[in-house]
Design a protein that fits this description.
By secondary structure, the protein is α+β, with helices and mostly antiparallel strands. 35% of the residues lie in helices and 28% in strands.
Amino acid sequence: MPPRSVLPPRADDFPQWYQEVIAKAELAENGPARGTMVIRPYGYGLWERMQAEMDARIKACGAENVYLPLFIPESYLRREAEHVEGFSPELAVVTVAGGKELEEPLVVRPTSETVFGELMAKWIQSYRDLPLLLNQWANVVRWELRPRVFLRTTEFLWQEGHTAHATREDAAAYARRILREAYLDFMTEVLAVPVLVGAKTARERFAGAINTMTLEGMMGDGRALQMGTSHELGQNFARAFEMQYLDADGALRHCWTTSWGVSTRMVGGLIMCHGDDFGLRVPPRIAHVQAVVLVVRDEDGVAEAARRIAAELTAAGVRARVDANTATGFGRRATDWELKGVPVRVEVGPRDLAEDTVTLVRRDRRTKEQAPADGVARAVADLLEDIQAGLLAEATASRDARTAAVSTLDEAIEAGRAGFARIPWSAVGEEGEATLAEHGITVRLLQRPDGTVPDDPDEPLDAVVARAY
C-alpha cells in the first residue's frame, strides 16, 4: 500500500501544512532567539545545492566572490539617507561590547550596500578598474515582526552582488543580465518554478534604487512570492561614498552601480510551489538526494544488492543514498522519504532480488513500476529528467490557470485574492495601487504585454497584482 499522508490537506490550511512539511521533512526549526531558524542537514543540503548552482551562474556573468564584515559603523548607513530610511525599522544595533558602551554604534548588516560603497570607492581609481563585479555569500539580520521559517526570519542566508560601471547603460545591462542569465535560468531550469519577471513600482522599489527588477513565483495557494531582485542604484551610492573614476580623458566621474540578491527564501518557495498533501516534491536538479535505494527486508543479500545498485547510480551521475535501516518498518521509512520529496525511490526486497527486478517509485506522481535490475541506472536517469520537466509544466499550468486578465480595480481585487490578476497599469496608477493595498493586494511587477521587462516606465505596461508573502 502507498504511504498515507501525515499532513493536513494543503487546501484546508495551507499555512499549517507549510509548517508541518518543514517539521516532518526535517528541514528546519525555530531557533532559540525569536525570529531565528535552525536549518537541519536535509534542509541545508537543499540550500547548498541552490548556492552551488547560483554561484556558478554568477561567476559565469563575471562576478567574483568576496566577504565583508558583519558589523557596519552606523555612520556608513547615515551617508545614504534614503537607504537608512528604508531599513530603519529592521535594524539591529550594537551599543555595548566588551563591557563598555561603544563610541559609535555598530549595525548588524541588513545588507551591505554601504560597506561595498566605501570599499569600492577605495578600490576604483580609473576607467581601467571598471566594471568592478563583486558578490558575497553571507548572513544578514533584519528585525522581523512576523517571522516565518525560510520566508521571513530575523537572520537569514543570502547572496548579494554589487557592481560598479562607467555608464548607466552598462550598469542597466548588467542588472538585466544577472536577472536573466543567473536568476531566471536557475529558477526555471533548476528549481522548476515558472517565475514572472518585471519591474517594481516606485512604491515597491528598493530603498535608494532608481529601478528594481523582480522575479515573482506563484505558490500553491495562489499567492506570490518574491524570489529575487536586481537593482539599478544609479549614482546614489556612488555620490554618497564618493565612488569616482578618471575617464579616458582624465575627467573625474561618478560610477553607476547595481546590487542584486536571492536568499534562503527560495527554499520556502520550493516547498510552497511544488509540495503536495504528502510533503515535498523536490525537482531532481536541485535535489541533493535524487534517488534513495530502500531495502524492504534485509534477507538473502538484499542490502548488499542495494549497495551495488546505489554504486551504479552514483557512477552514472545520480546522487543516490541507501536506506538499509530495517529496524524501522518499511512503511515508516517510505513515508519519511516521501515527506522529504526525494524524486525516485528504488525499492529492493527478497522477491525483487529473486526476479532480478526493482520497484521504481516516482515522487511527483506517486506511481510505481517494475524495472529490470540490470540497467536501473539508465531507467532512473530517464525518470529524473521526466520528473524535472513535469514539475515545471505542472507549476506553469497551475499558474496560468489561476491568472486572470482584468480591466478594473474591483476585478483585480477579486482575482488577486485567488491568484494573479493582469491589468493595464494605466487602469491602476499610484492611486489605484494604494486602493489595492487596502485590500491586501499588491502590485508585484510591471511588464510589457508580451511578458518582458520594460526599459521605459512610460511605455504601455501591464501590472500583475496578487496577495503576497
